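Troubleshooting entry. The earlier prediction with glyceraldehyde-3-phosphate gave an output that would not parse, so I re-checked the input for stray whitespace and re-submitted. Clean input:
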Amino acid sequence: LTNGELIEWKGKTAEVYSTISSTSDYKPTLLGTIPQLGEKEALEVLNSALKAYDKGQGLWPTMKVVDRIACMEKFVEQMKTKRDVIVKLLMWEIGKNLPDSQKEFDRTVDYIYDTIEAYKQIDRDSAKFEKNDGVYAHIRRGPLGVVLCLGPYNYPLNETFTLLIPALIMGNPVIFKPAKLGVLLISPLLEAFQNSFPKGVVNVIYGRGRVLATPIMQSGKIDVLSLIGNSKSANALQAQHPKGNRLRMVLGLEAKNPAIVLPDADLDLTVDECIAGTLSFNGQRCTALKVLYVHESVVDEFNKRFIAKVDALKFGNPWESGVKLTPLPEVEKPGYIKELIADALEKGASILNEKGGVLTDNFIFPAVLYPVNTGMKVYSEEQFGPVIPVIPFSDIEEPLDDMAESNYGQQVSLFGKDIKTLSPLIDTLVNLVCRVNLNSSCQRGPDVYPFTGRKDSAFGTLSVHDALRSFSIRTFVASKDN
Ligand code: G3H
């Protein structure tokens, strides 16, 4: 989709496979083909967005609030008619189970409506400063320019839209490349984009990320890089832009969120939250719990209850009832998880659960590894999959020191009861991460709360309200007349 036109592509294409087999003997399923655009098309799409922005004078950046809202409402109404097909594609393309696929779609629709409401309110009350030296100002928020938007495979609809929707509504034209996995589920929305927004405001390109993003970044003509993915890709893209360090960016990156289980934690609740935190969508969430620190006085009991629940989880195809564990969409992921397990075993850990590490063509059963230490790869790398390191500790300074040393700083889950212990600990933890979840697992939602992180975990803040600020700038007219 470029310049308001859906171009029929006659060039090179790539096949998209699902790791879910449609036959009883394992064979990946061909789902469709996508265009493989090149540098020339990438620059055409860039020009389309630049034309729509027209140095800030275009129809979209100058449009009235009510009219921009009308476009967004038109889009979301049309999007709602595509629920069934998009939910189906979420299951086939990325293996997300049916309830979570439905939730991803519905959450995205809610997010759009909430963004519209927040947009109506944002900074409407021009700041009134009493000590203004007789200079009056009407302060508002304006667009930043052309935004390049790159979303992740684990939430190819929802997280991509948490970048795209606020960027758009604030008046920025967008160039958007769907994630490699989850790429097909965007195509049912192309006509809705085309029908709802002025020409060139939404541009969608297909192909290999590096091939397409490189000429766009090197042109120096985009104003914002927005990406949910890994810091290595973000750094490489940023380095290609002539403005380098001064490029505006909104980034959601990797994390290694820990759980800390104190001696007085309610173990039943803790185990249930740790199951959800480590294994929802097979652990393929940046907010997943990726390391469990359990006090040595309760670690044996915790492990016993935890592995019983892990082994009871049902594996199957995403549409089957009660299925929690599903095929992994990345073909190379089971092999990578196997490598992490082998490294931990070699360095002294064991797999505690009976089914742990059992490998099939498209899945590896979650392995609970114990005792893990900081020298193991499963501690230092973001596993983004079904393997759970458990670290025993005797002194709370041990997990705190590890967190302070870590490259990441998104969230933590803290399990315990005694408020006198919890309170000073929370004061320390909020200076190491951005969200402390008390007796609950880590998560991004509800979407009104700030979603961000320290160090390599994020740059800028997302959420219904914060994202509107991240994709805009405050502008004002100053005058001596009130
Ligand atoms: O992958 C990172 C996502 O932001 C996780 O979102 O906590 O809602 O599953 P979630």
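This one parsed fine. Residues 98-121 form the longest helix (24 residues).
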